[in-house]
From TrEMBL:
InterPro entries from the UniProt entry: SecD, SecD-TM, SecD/SecF_arch_bac, SecD/SecF_CS, SecD_1st, SecD_SecF_C, SecD_SecF_C_bact, SecDF_P1_head
Gene coding for it: secD
Assembly and binders: Forms a complex with SecF. Part of the essential Sec protein translocation apparatus which comprises SecA, SecYEG and auxiliary proteins SecDF-YajC and YidC.
Keywords, comma-separated and alphabetical: Cell membrane, Membrane, Protein transport, Translocation, Transmembrane, Transmembrane helix, Transport
UniProt name for this protein: Protein translocase subunit SecD
Main location: membrane
Limits of the SecDF P1 head subdomain domain: 306-431
Transmembrane residue ranges: 452-471, 478-497, 503-525, 546-570, 582-605
Pfam family for this entry, one: Sec_GG
Organism: Colwellia ponticola
């Protein structure tokens, strides 16, 4: 029988639309003001932190809707922004420097909906307000640092093997080594060829010169490493700002995008992003009296520092090694499956560590993290004043004489070892960065963007709704139902995709989709009218209308989808936002306009004797 769908097809359409509606529902509940407490530099909030927050809020008579500990963070929801701001100030004053306290807006999604993954769409910076930076990594400086390191390494290797040379220097993009004898040239070539498989070596016997050039693969690795490490370092610094849900991600081959929702002071954000942090290795002063030091009588050659838990230690003033010499740090496990951090140094750092640990085997060595934090004070020229903060992040016993590579044990857990490795790499930016673009979106403007974008979507939907209902009558109502289902599916899919963010251009993509979504129905309905005018029966006209228009609809939408995917692949942030909603809208509109309307039409008119059709 024509135009009668199997029950399972009808149920499938209903299930997909219902599922989309279910995951779109969280967007109706709005957001509540909240305070988010997160640990800094590897510290995680625990049950004790949760109890401390409850105690402080109750002591200050601050009521809250709910408080929960999740993923090492404590999130407290409040009824209004007044209580939220007061709670932020109270917790910021009492929790200490190992926690960041950030204002947040958290969804009011019911627990039953959240338990199945129901979350509202994330809004982009242009809709929520805040600061956005586009930063460019100086890749040439990263290559220059790599070449300087190679020069230092070559000198150290040749000296260690007693190979005499006149000079090692940089010449343009190459490293040139000049020798006195052919025998030394040949020995150096053999040595360097074994140790450095990612460089190309060439020699000139007449001038006794050896030239080393980095391979394209090595250059690519240096650039990739510089970009990834800078992202890690910047992300650590952004976390220190206490911003809720910051975004730090790469863009292209040498750019980093930083979005800080809720931050309006661009000067302070830039100062903190450009602030310096470093690592130092110092010997623990085992001869000094710690109790006297705690009373203020610190030995002249020592300093008193504490770790993240507040445990004090007396350290030597003389610095064995700074983090500038660290080239890599990775977490792993030792032969007893205990967490450890494997550290690699450059040639100069290896020499310093070797001489520093030679006579101190069996003594404890501390790793100290040093950073400069912004204060509320400014100097005479109006620049923000930074304060030096030092904290012990690890104390380990020197087991043997250390060189260019060594390991730090005693981290406690694999997570702590991983965080320590990140900190050791985050001492200084691998390559300088420059802010090439800066945008500030006020919270009022963000709210206005949301309002205007929503109005544009509703206006477009309303006009199309009226046109379809007037022009195609009952079939127009079916098309409008499909259009509404299409909007619901777009919102539901955007809410379901992790990392998907709705931006102002994304709203434009939705408005465009609303207009395009009925194109398929227009083609189908016009074909049905044409078949009726040619004398076909109603059922034949409906069947032929859908069958004949299907290939045209697929061709038109596939070409648009390809264009949208290209925009997503090569476009920047705003273009990507437009491409995401457009791509999702094309896919959902093909489903609702063809499969969805066919199911409704078959249920209402399919298999019946009809003399006329309301189209």
């Amino acid at each position: 029988m024509l135009n009668k769908s199997p029950l399972w097809k009808t149920l499938m359409v209903a299930f997909i639309v219902a599922l989309g509606a279910l995951y779109a529902t969280p967007n109706l509940y709005g957001e509540a003001p909240a305070v988010q407490v997160s640990g800094l530099r590897g510290v995680q909030a625990d049950a004790a932190t949760l109890d401390s927050i409850k105690t402080q809020l109750e002591a200050n008579q601050l009521s809250y809707d709910s408080i929960a500990l999740e993923d090492g963070q404590v999130l407290t929801r409040f009824k209004n922004t007044e209580d939220q701001l007061k709670a932020r100030d109270v917790l910021d004053d009492n929790l200490g420097k190992q926690f960041s306290v950030a204002l947040n807006l958290t969804p009011n999604t019911p627990d039953w909906l959240a338990s199945i993954g129901g979350t509202p769409m994330k809004l982009g910076l242009d809709l929520s307000g805040g600061v956005s930076f586009l930063m460019e990594v100086n890749m040439q400086e990263a290559l220059n640092k790599a070449k300087v390191g190679m020069v230092s390494d070559f000198r150290g290797d040749l000296r260690n093997e007693n190979i005499r040379y006149r000079t090692v220097k940089e010449v343009n993009d190459d490293i040139v080594v000049i020798f006195r004898k052919v025998e030394d040239l040949e020995a150096a070539q053999s040595l360097l060829k074994k140790r450095y498989r990612d460089i190309l070596l060439s020699t000139d016997d007449d001038t006794l010169t050896l030239t080393a050039k980095m391979t394209e693969q090595k250059i690519k690795e240096i650039r990739e490493y510089a970009l990834q490490q800078n992202i890690t370092i910047i992300r650590n610094r952004v976390n220190e700002l206490g911003v809720a849900e910051p975004l730090v991600q790469r863009q292209g081959q040498k750019h980093i995008v930083i979005e800080l929702p809720g931050v309006q002071d661009t000067a302070k954000a830039k100062e903190i992003l450009n602030a310096t942090a470093t690592i130092e290795f110092r010997l623990v002063d085992t001869e000094g009296d710690l109790s006297n030091a705690l009373e203020g009588r610190v030995p002249a050659n020592s300093i008193l520092l504490t770790d993240k838990d507040g445990k004090p230690s007396l350290l030597k003033k003389r610095v064995m090694l700074t983090g500038d010499h660290i080239t890599d740090a990775k977490s792993g496990f030792d032969e007893y499956s205990r967490p450890q951090v494997n550290i690699s140094l450059d040639s100069a750092g290896g020499s310093k560590m070797s001489s520093g640990t030679k006579s101190n085997i069996g003594k404890p060595m501390a790793t100290v993290f040093i950073e400069y934090k912004a204060t509320d004070r400014k100097d005479a020229e109006g620049n923000i004043i930074f304060e030096k903060h030092q904290e012990i992040i690890s104390v380990a016993t020197i087991q043997s004489r250390l060189g260019k590579t060594f390991r730090i044990t005693g981290s406690g857990s694999a997570a702590e070892a991983h965080n320590l490795a990140l900190l050791l790499r985050a001492g200084a930016l691998i390559a300088p960065i420059t802010i090439v673009e800066e945008r500030t979106v006020g919270p009022t403007l963000g709210a206005e963007n949301v309002k205007l974008g929503f109005e544009a979507i509703m206006m477009g939907f309303g006009l199309v709704f009226i046109f379809m209902m007037v022009y195609y009558r009952a079939f127009g109502v079916v098309a409008n139902l499909a259009l509404g289902a299409n909007l619901v599916l777009i919102v539901g899919i955007m809410s379901m995709i992790p990392g998907a963010t709705l931006t102002l251009p994304g709203m434009a993509g939705i408005v465009l989709t609303v207009g395009m979504a009925v194109d398929a129905n227009v083609l189908i309905f016009e074909r049905i009218r044409e078949e009726i005018r040619e004398g076909k029966t109603i059922q034949q006209a409906i069947h032929q209308g859908y069958e004949a228009a299907f290939s045209t609809i697929i061709d038109a939408n596939i070409t648009t989808l390809i264009a949208a995917l290209i925009l997503f692949a090569i476009g920047t942030g705003p273009v990507k936002g437009f491409a995401v909603t457009l791509s999702i809208g094309i896919i959902t509109s093909m489903f609702t306009s063809v499969v969805g309307t066919r199911a409704v039409v078959n249920v209402i008119w399919g298999g019946k004797r009809l003399d006329k059709l309301s189209i």
